[in-house]
Amino acid sequence: MRPARVQHLLLDAAAALPGVSAKTFTDAGHTRHPFGVVVEAEGRTSRWQVALLSAPGETLGSDEDRAPVLGEKPPALEVPVLTNDLATVERALVAQLLAQDPGEIASVDLYSARPTPPAVGYGATIDLHDGSRAFINHVR
Predict the structure, then answer these.
(1) What pTM value is reported for the model?
(2) Kind of pairing between the strands at 105-110 and 123-128
(3) How far from chain centre, in Å, is Cα 115?
């Protein structure tokens, strides 16, 4: 999977949430990171960077025309009622991403749900059945 595809999936997930508007970093004029989405929810703007670790043995462009690798879907997450709290935006984005997933996602790790969240604080690591790993990180 490629970062542009993850960005597209995240954008679709955000757009499916009630009362949320979203656009790509490029469309929002955010040039600090190449891939990501800007989300407007409950009066708060948040930015979610997309990064990707390719599957073992994959090279840039090697999977452009390959069909998605599907497998067992992880348990669904309940989409929370959105507030202007970043943790609810994080959970809502990932829950909606899981709801729309045809089976490419193998597992999800929400940063705010960890006993000791990482330095990023909000976001998720998403393992995919093709062996790649996507990172959705809240950035300023």
Answers:
(1) 0.91
(2) antiparallel
(3) 21
